[in-house]
Each structure stands twice: as structure tokens, then as C-alpha cells.
């Protein structure tokens, strides 16, 4: 068994958080929805939205039959609302191309709107039990420290999949556990800024610890400040339209008191460009 696998498996069986998408029978659709929601959004914010979403749309075909505006509205305050549109489009594609069943094949998953390397492999591994390397930001940090002796990982690269694959056991079930355990370890122990090295199951073999915790360049993209940002303006526009839906809102009535009118207009234009807002005769509404 590869070097990291045994301690990760033993630790995960005792320490894994009880999360909905890890429960028996959660299903491929639930896994796919959870992965869309978890992108750049904390777990505690996702869980109530996920449960409500799956109650409203228990299958891809159920979501595909609803207007995109309802998906954007239900996305509420999860952030990055384009994900709601992408998830709706993916549901339509699943209905039309795959008879309403989330595909198992990684290439078929990658062909769906909004799905990249991580999400495609996460669905194939965690929902269908196949053997693939699954690499997210947390996994990359664990590999950088434990294997490469660096404080922070470099930019994402296709080699990340090869590095993770080298740590996976041949056994399919154990490989899935190692994938989940590496992500969990990065999320709650091997964190970016305050790692709990004394509680880490990989402490005895961690190359970064053995080297004395050398600093390395942090090349992670910095999150822009939300307050006063275009993201905040976009969110405020969408909130106005969600609250008014299905009634369109006159353009002049959208954030008339916003402190920066140029920023407000830029936010509206970008939302229209992204397909999150539609404009007709100086009226704005969510996509239909």
C-alpha cells in the first residue's frame, strides 16, 4: 500500500465528519449538486441549501423541467450564482443526452456544463465507486507538504492527478477512502494557515515537518475584498430581482441608491452577459 494510504485510511475511519454526501445511498445526482455548491463555499452554508434543493428537485429531470430563474432564486446567498445556471444546464444535458441519469464515465461528465476535472472524478469515485484520483485544493496542499516538503502547493497542474494516483491503493474501496481522507485532512488538520501538525496522522512521514517547516512562496490567488466590490453589486442586483420574481423590475428601480452608479451599471451588464439576468424594454428579470 502506498506510503500515505494506510495512516490516512485509519485516521479517516475515526475522524471523518458526518456529511450528507458521505452517507449510504446519497446518489450521483446528490453528489453532483453538492460538488457544485461546495465550490468556494463553506460546508456549513451548503448543507441547508443542498437539502432544500434536493427536496425541490430530487432528479436532474426535475430541475431541467423548471425555469433557470427558479434555480438562480433558490441558489440564494451561496455566492457565484453562475453555478446555479451551469447546474441547470447540466441537468438539461443529463436529461437530453443520458435519459435523466447522471453519467458514470469521466469523459461524459466532463462534457457537461460547469464540470471540470475535480467534479467529474468526484462523482465517478464517490457516487459510482470507480477508481480515479480526486484532487481539490486541500488534497494539493496535503501532497505538497507530506510528499514534496513545501508549505503551499504550486498552481494547479495535470501532474496533480498523477501525484495523487501514485498514493492510491489498488483496492477500489480503499482508493476512494484515501481520496476522501486527503481532502478531509486538508480541510480540518492540514489547513492553509494554521495546520494542526500534532494531530496529523502523517506527521511521522511528512516531508515538510521533517525539513523544519520551511516557508515557500504562496502562489494562491488572493480573494478580493467583498465589501464595495463588483461581486457585492452583482449580488445586490440579483437579490432585487429574486425578491421581485416573477415580476420584472424597471431598470431605473434596480439599486437606485447604490453609491457607485457606474459600478451598478457594470454589474447589471455583466449579469446580462453571463445569462443570469435578461433585459427587455428596460425591464430586468431572471432567466426564463
Plain-language structure description:
There is one protein chain. This protein is mainly alpha-helical and 288 residues long. The protein is 52% helix and 3% strand. The chain has a three-stranded antiparallel β-sheet. The model has no long low-confidence stretch (mean pLDDT 92).
Describe how the helices and strands are arranged.
Blueprint: H1 5-15, H2 28-38, H3 43-56, H4 60-64, H5 68-75, H6 82-98, H7 106-110, H8 117-127, H9 137-146, H10 159-165, H11 172-188, H12 207-210, H13 230-244, E1 249-250, H14 261-274, E2 278-280, E3 283-285
Antiparallel strand pairs: 1-3, 2-3
Helix pairs in contact: 1-11, 2-3, 2-8, 5-6, 9-11, 13-14
Number of strands: 3
Bin the strand percentage.
under 5%
Predict the CATH topology of the largest domain.
Answer: Endonuclease III, domain 1
Architecture per CATH nomenclature, i.e. the level-2 architecture of the largest domain = Orthogonal Bundle
Uncertain regions: pLDDT < 50 for 5+ in a row?
Answer: none
The rounded distance between the terminal residues' Cα atoms is: 52 Å
Spatially, the strands of the biggest sheet line up as: 1-3-2
Helical region count? 14
The largest sheet, given as strand count, sense and whether it forms a barrel, is: 3 strands, antiparallel
Helical percentage: 40-55%
Computed over alpha carbons, the radius of gyration is: 21 Å
Order of helices and strands: HHHHHHHHHHHHHEHEE
Helix- and strand-based class? mainly alpha
CATH H-level superfamily title of the largest domain: Hypothetical protein, domain 2
- Average per-residue pLDDT, rounded, comes to 92
Shape: globular
Amino acid at each position: 500500500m502506498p506510503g500515505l494510504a494506510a495512516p490516512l485510511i485509519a485516521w479517516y475511519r475515526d475522524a471523518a465528519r458526518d456529511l450528507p454526501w458521505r452517507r449510504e445511498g446519497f446518489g450521483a445526482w446528490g453528489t453532483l449538486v453538492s460538488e457544485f455548491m461546495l465550490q468556494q463555499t463553506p460546508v456549513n452554508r451548503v448543507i441547508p441549501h443542498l437539502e432544500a434543493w434536493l427536496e425541490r428537485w430530487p432528479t436532474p429531470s426535475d430541475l431541467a423541467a423548471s425555469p433557470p430563474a427558479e434555480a438562480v432564486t433558490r441558489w440564494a446567498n451561496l455566492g457565484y450564482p453562475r453555478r446555479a445556471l451551469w447546474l441547470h444546464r447540466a441537468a438539461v444535458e443529463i436529461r437530453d443526452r443520458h435519459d435523466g441519469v447522471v453519467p458514470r464515465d469521466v469523459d461524459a461528465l466532463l462534457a457537461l456544463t460547469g464540470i471540470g476535472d475535480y467534479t467529474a472524478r468526484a462523482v465517478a469515485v464517490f457516487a459510482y465507486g470507480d477508481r480515479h484520483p480526486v484532487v481539490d485544493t486541500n488534497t494539493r496542499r496535503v501532497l505538497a507538504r507530506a510528499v514534496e516538503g513545501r508549505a503551499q502547493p504550486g498552481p494547479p497542474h495535470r501532474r496533480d492527478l498523477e501525484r495523487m494516483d501514485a498514493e492510491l491503493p489498488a483496492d477500489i474501496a480503499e482508493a476512494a477512502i484515501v481520496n476522501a481522507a486527503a481532502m478531509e485532512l486538508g480541510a480540518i488538520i492540514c489547513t492553509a494557515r494554521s495546520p494542526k501538525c500534532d494531530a496529523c496522522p502523517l506527521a511521522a512521514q511528512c516531508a515538510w515537518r521533517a525539513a523544519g517547516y520551511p516557508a515557500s512562496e504562496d502562489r494562491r490567488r488572493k480573494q478580493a475584498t467583498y465589501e464595495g466590490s463588483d461581486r457585492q453589486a452583482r449580488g445586490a442586483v440579483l437579490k432585487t430581482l429574486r425578491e421581485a420574481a416573477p415580476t420584472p423590475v424597471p431598470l431605473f428601480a434596480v439599486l437606485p441608491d447604490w453609491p457607485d452608479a457606474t459600478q451598478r451599471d457594470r454589474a447589471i451588464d455583466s449579469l446580462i452577459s453571463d445569462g443570469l439576468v435578461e433585459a427587455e424594454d428596460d425591464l430586468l428579470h431572471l432567466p426564463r
